[in-house]
Design a protein that fits this description.
35% of the residues lie in helices and 17% in strands. It has 302 residues and is an alpha+beta fold. The protein has two domains: 6-79, Phosphorylase Kinase, domain 1 (2-Layer Sandwich), CATH 3.30.200.20; 83-289, Transferase(Phosphotransferase), domain 1, CATH 1.10.510. The strands form three sheets. The chain has a five-stranded antiparallel β-sheet with strand order 1-2-3-5-4, covered by helices on one side. It has a three-stranded antiparallel β-sheet with strand order 6-8-9. Strands 7-10 form a two-stranded antiparallel ribbon. A hairpin with a 4-residue loop joins strand 1 and strand 2. The model is unreliable at 281-302 (pLDDT under 50). Keywords: ATP-binding, Kinase, Nucleotide-binding, Serine/threonine-protein kinase, Transferase. One of its GO terms (cellular component) is PML body. It comes from Cynoglossus semilaevis. GO terms for molecular function: ATP binding; protein serine/threonine kinase activity; protein tyrosine kinase activity; SMAD binding; transcription coactivator activity; transcription corepressor activity.
């Protein structure tokens, strides 16, 4: 590995380094997976090879360049990306505006549409796995990363445990048949958490998560609300409408990526709620880091 390699982060099955290719001097990200996790490395390489049929830029997927196996250790080379959404939020002094959430939603729907077309489930949609190529220069260029636990739909079985608890779909919690729809639920949980600047479901116990789901299943978005001053905004109403269709408890009725991409929220160009947020931010000053009741979803929103 490049002597100048810089550690970028650590995942469940390895480390990620920033390296320089000796042949092109290009900066790349290299994921190392050690011998004891060879099975996981082989699965990820298999998944990434399947994804190479897509243009990674057009489909919002991380670009996979190549891999090497050195003494039973795997080195997976990817394009260098900038920062993930989780890190951005931790470094930022404010939650995301609805216009910014729109961009993330649209880009991730494009990625999920590609996965659905080949019947692949990502299985780990979360803020850490959504990255900007360059947050400052290309804020609309966002990619889905980490296909280490991705699976073909035909491999999924009732009772399989997928996803972190805050993003875990109802059908996973209840041991029901699984499909690509689990990724849509996870995306819905992610964008809802961006909106309220907190987890939609914060359970750390699967039993507790199942009970909360049972008691709230008639309207999973019921604990997100909107003040009367915000509901009049078209952008807020459109967002709530899409979110409710993504967080449909019945996976058979849950909106698909292709359908969601046609939703009016994703065609909006005017975001009056952003201005409202900025005015509130100025008044709140530094106390904005964890607003708990700033955003509310109206129960009668379509």
């Amino acid at each position: 590995m490049d002597e100048r390699a810089k550690l970028l982060g650590r995942g469940a099955f390895g480390y990620v380094y920033l390296c320089t290719r000796s042949d092109t001097e290009e900066m790349v990200a290299v994921k190392t997976i050690l011998e004891e996790d060879t099975e996981f490395a082989e699965d990820e390489v298999r998944n990434l090879k399947k994804l190479q049929q897509f243009d990674p830029d057009q489909n919002c997927l991380v670009r996979f360049n190549r891999y090497q196996e050195i003494q039973k250790n795997y080195l997976l080379e990817f394009e260098k990306l900038d920062m993930n959404v989780q890190d951005f939020l931790e470094q930022s002094s404010r939650p995301l505006h609805l216009s910014e959430i729109q961009v993330i939603t649209q880009q991730m729907l494009v990625a999920l549409k590609a996965l659905k077309s080949i019947q692949m489930v990502h299985g780990d949609i979360k803020l850490d796995n959504i990255m900007w190529r360059n947050q400052q220069l290309e804020p609309r260029n966002i990619k889905l990363i980490d296909f280490g636990v991705a699976q073909d739909v035909c491999e999924l079985r009732c009772g399989d445990i997928l996803q972190l608890l805050p993003q875990r779909a109802p059908e996973v919690l209840l041991g029901l048949p699984l499909s690509e729809a689990v990724d849509m639920w996870a995306l819905g949980s992610v964008i809802a958490s961006l909106y309220i600047n907190n987890e939609l479901y914060s359970s750390t116990c699967e039993l507790d998560g199942t009970w909360k789901l049972k008691t709230e299943c008639s309207c999973p978005t019921g604990n997100i609300s909107t003040s009367s001053t915000t509901t009049r905004h078209e952008d807020t109403q459109a967002f709530v409408s899409l979110l409710k269709q993504i967080l449909e408890v019945d996976p058979r009725k849950r909106i698909s990526p292709s359908e969601a991409l046609l939703h009016p929220f994703l065609t909006l160009t005017n975001f009056p709620s952003d201005l409202t947020e900025d005015l509130s931010d100025n008044k709140a000053a530094a106390s904005i880091k964890k607003p708990s009741s700033k955003h509310l979803l109206s129960a009668d929103t379509p």
